[in-house]
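Help! Submission page says 'invalid entity' but I think these are all valid:
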Amino acid sequence: MFNSANLHSPRTQALILLAPALGAYTIFAVWPMIEVVILSFQRWNGLTADRAWAGLDNYRYIFTDDPVYWVAFNNTLIWTVMSVIFPPMVGLLLALGLNEKLFARGTMRAIYYLPVIIAPIAVATMWRWMYDPFFGLFNQVMTDFGLQSLIQDWLGDRDVALYSMFVAFTWQNVGFSMVLFLAGLQSVDRSLVEAARIDGASRWQVFRHVTLPALQVTMTIVIVLSTISSLKAFDIVYGMTGGGPAQSTQMLAMWAFTQSMQIFDFGRGSAISVTLLLITLAVVVPYLRWSQKREEAAR
Amino acid sequence: MNYGKIAAGLIASAGLVAGAAQAEDLTVWTLNYSSEAQVAALDAAEARFEETHPGVNVDIVKRGTDEHKTALRVAAGSDTGPDVYFMWAGLGLGGEYVKAGLSRDLTDYYAKYGWKDRVSTPSLAFVEAFGPGMNGAPYRFTGEAIYYNKGLYEKAGITEEPKTYDELVAAAKKLKEAGIPAFTFGGTVNWHVMRLMDVLLETTCGVETHDALTGMEADWSTTPCAADAFKELKMWSTDYILAPFMGIDNRQSTNLFLTNRAAMMLEGDWQVNVIKEGAKLEDFAVYPFPTGTDRLYGFAEYLYISTKSKNPDLAAEFLDMFSSTEFQDQIKGAFGALSVNKSVELGDDVPELYKTWKDIFANAKGTFVNGDQAFPLDVTTEYFRIINEVASGNMEPQAAADAMQAFISKRS
């Protein structure tokens, strides 16, 4: 029988409050993920209702016959490694600088954060124009300074294009790391810093032995979020090179999209998405568990 | 309670419902055209059909290419969607939708309205290609040829338009000696450089072998002319294309052409409008790429009636109106040099370039289509990749031919 007392229990109320969000999450996040996994074992062109069972064919194709998959895989790997190194590093340096009492510190923080709120596709368009080999800012400036020998086809040369895109990506994302590090720096115990200075520690020693250990939790967050966002890098690639030249800047997320939405092979596109999902889980889950254990041990 | 007001409200609602029931909607999905003339032509089609069909509301929905393709996929899997949709007529594009059953067989409408006699023969090439029946009504047929800058030709001492491929190469050499890049292409949009490969394949292979290669019936790896075409592509990319070109798109390439940075472009008849908007038409001329086969390089675009359309008769009336002599006469020049309607003549006041185009169409002995219209989508994507590899100097011609065949052979 219905007991009104149950309705007032914290557990029931929590469930009632969570139910709409859980429902939406299941429909719009969990189910599509399951659907993608199912699709990766099927053959479907998105036009007909018929979805033929393909077994492991899609996976066999992408691993052995697809001329682009491993290029995209390597690029994603390079991009991810660079993403967990450079934007957080620059973000940390900016945060350290802007944590000091500087003139117009608030304005400078806002300026450095500004690119984060710009749509990636707009950033891509802007940088594509700056990289234009004939009329773009970079080559024009180099010409003006007599540095013609350094002029490049920034987005058209396969040896340079990926890194050119990464510079734009760093420009956009460095503000995000900076804000997280700034927040982390506020939690550094001032008394420890002062004690270290009284003991004669240099600025580097204070940073190395006081500030940095206090930022470990922030670093974990920054690195995990950078890893996730870099693995799913799409907009900037789509907007700047479209994966070219000759698919040399292709990434897994973009190649999954291309297979599904441009070649209309949803089975292969889903298989690529599943591999990307597994890679993301393989990187993120162990790291989270490791950091969780460290935190527990520290208590 | 005021029963009078309620009754009046109910009567008014009933009137609205009845009015809505009488109105018919016709939805047409097409591309987002950038040319003002093309947008105006579509607006005119909408207005004209509504004028001649009182009570019909025509809604022409324009989207970007990828969005249009995606929307059609979504429509294919549901009961909603357009009555009429635009698509390029080739195998990997319109042909795929026909094969998937999204296109209604128009055989009866062709007979009823006499479309086969009305439209030009080249534009009908794909109507019965992917069957069953007749699918799509020609909306536009375009040709692609070499536009050149008369002043730069003169500066390089080129006095005549090249008639053979060797003469074209000799002209390119003269241009290079005069410090002028022969061609400009934009590499970021894969299909732009592909045009050069398409015409080179026609030049080195001839009609039958070219068709067999694009039909995936001949072996790219063991057919020498395929590697020869890649070899020529490499030669053009290295020596005669304004560099760098892999990092720019077709629009940037056009700007370079219009600002005299390169002597030639391989473009369609629609380019006349583009030149008109950005430069002086009299400074440019056009001639077919000298492939030696005299076939016209071009492609067709069709309007298809969807099998999901609740009112195919009305949709057919729209297609009939669109290709009618009266309407095509009203919009002539908007979508290219020639109308798909054979009876529509160019006026005396049209630009000289259009008159040249008319001759190019008239003198063509058959047609061959762009690679991305000839191949299925997955092969097209690989064709793009290989062309770009060769054009960037990262793949040797024979390796390119081998890679192409390897991909085709592995298709399930």
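Support: the input was valid. A stray whitespace character was the problem, and the output above is from the cleaned input. The CA atoms of residues 197 and 233 of chain B lie 6 Å apart.
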